Model the fold of this input.
Amino acid sequence: MPTTDLLGRPTTEAEDELLELYRRCKALLARDDLAPCARAGARVATVGLWNAVNDLALEHEQLLDLGA
Amino acid sequence: MGAGEYWNPKTETLGRDELAALQLAKLHRMCDWAAARSPFYQRSFREAGFDPSQLRSLDDLRRLPMLTRDEWMASQGEQPPFGLLPVAGREAAIRWHTTSGTTGREPIRVLDTAKDWAWQAEMWCYGLWGFGVRPADTAYVAFGYGSFIGFWGLHYGMEKMGVLNVPGGAQTTEGRVRQLVDFGATVVASTPTYALRLAQEAERLGVDLATGGVKRLILSGEPAGSIPQTKALIERLWGARAGDTAGMTEIGTIMIFECSHQPGGTHIIEDHFIEEVVDPASDEPVGYGEAGERVVTSFGRGIIPLLRYRTADLVTKVPASRCACGRGFDLYEGGILGRVDDMKLVRGTNVYPRAVEGIVREFPAVEEFQLLLTREGHFDRIALRVEPAPEVTDQAWADMAERLAKALAEAHEGLRFEVERAQAGELPRFELKARRTVDRRDTPIGG
Done:
């Protein structure tokens, strides 16, 4: 199913890949079995991807409940 | 324009209608977030009869109550230390910063989560990239790295872009001059005032900055970065281009930046902010080309939602088409023009510190100056205290003082400024936010 950005425009292949990575990072960050080193790394990765998907108008949400 | 000119080509080149649609989508989410989590907004929305579902167009933004600094401060007093605006406590944050405290008032205290902090660096990337900074650069950050948020975001923005970054922390001005030369800096970040001070110090040390490696200066923290005379002086002394930016602790980062086309104004990062300009007396919006007060809504910092914050900054918005860079972002002509309460009334004449600085900077021998207002009986006095370069002789000073007084009077309906020579090193020097206007007219005798 095609996805659209916040403007309702179809996303590009690269944007889809970014969104997928972002969602996977969030899911990882939500786990409660991560070692501190893994959790910290997942948080940095999630935050980095959040900026990309936010800039590209793909997603705009808060990460506070994930500890970020 | 090539896509390589933009940090984020997709949204920086959106048309105005699409930009408005994106702002509305983000505004919805921020209002929902604030309504769900912030005790302050829960109360203010209730008192104003506002619900986020009422937002159908950007015009509905005006249904939201404005937030003032006084309300923020009162909130901090009601629930110390951070007040009722935050949606979470300090345990959720990774940074705690404060306003600079240069006004002597209690500072505003702000928190940032990991996401918020990274977003602040991101905003600097828009500005740095837009002014031509690239990963091959070496940046020198002339900043004290304290609790004032200042250039912290720039520092991390540079790192994010892959720029070799030199943190010029707490040290002497001489030490900073030597470091930026020794390390081969191509970009220097500082306040406009401090850029001038570094240049003065370099001259004293026999370092010719104008033939050195610095190609770009990133200015922030004072309106002077967009005062044409000050900017021209900085660019001449450094032999580099100077780009203005402006931000504030309340949003944590910059919201405007000058692009490499240097159009005489600063672009608003409109995919991350809504910037309204209103008449400070009536709160009614003013049109393009009219001066008014900035009111900012930010889509960035999540732990402290900021909706319709009145900044007291005086600005004039002009359309994006004023600049040839191809961005869809509107601009503030001349950057931040000053504060809405900056204007001084002296014997019936309006005096704007920005205009005075513009005149003073046409005299390159001025090392530092101060505008001093006093009252004797019912008579207001206005004096320009000037610290010229030490080599300025008495004869040269007399000539300079006469020309300064004439230029100031001509620009102020004949108002007489007393131009006085201050001793070398007598006037205060500033690293952050210069305070050159001293108004003692309300100070009691002996106070």
